[in-house]
Prior knowledge:
The chain has about 190 residues and is of the alpha/beta class. The protein is built from eleven helices and five strands. It has a five-stranded parallel beta sheet with strand order 1-2-3-4-5.
Amino acid sequence: xxxxxxxxxxxxxxxxxxxxxxxxxxxxxxxxxxxxxxxxxxxxxxxxxxxxxxxxxxxxxxxxxxxxxxxxxxxxxxxxxxxxxxxxxxxxxxxxxxxxxxxxxxxxxxxxxxxxxxxxxxxxxxxxxxxxxxxxxxxxxxxxxxxxxxxxxxxxxxxxxxxxxxxxxxxxxxxxxxxxxxxxxxxxxxxxxx
Length: 194
């Protein structure tokens, strides 16, 4: 905690926005703890510090493994559970709705690197798509006006990850996530470009 606070002191004067990009607290959610109590304990104090620095907030809740897009989230795997389960998708939706209510992010990310998930985990992708779209619909039904984000992976769009083409583009991502208001781009050029 001390090093995180020290880091915030160093970069916050040079920033306009803070991004919290996390795996959901699956063990606590699966054990029945409310999203509100988890956020109050773990995230609200951090967001209060960031807001005290005058920073806007972007929050991204990962639907699968952020370091290995072909896999389920690590804590879901450890629990023997899957985002393909409707009950787990409901936990995701409820958590992200609580994030919207309690943290009031300027931008709320519902899918990270959607095109890479589609390429790396075609069996998992329909559940990711379902969970994100259901969450977006629930947020709008609850009156949320928060800007909703989906990110894509640049080298995947260019056909550069795992090969050297052809260009794939991201039209499918716009079709699959029609709620998208902000497009995020992630790039790891050393994987795809000389």
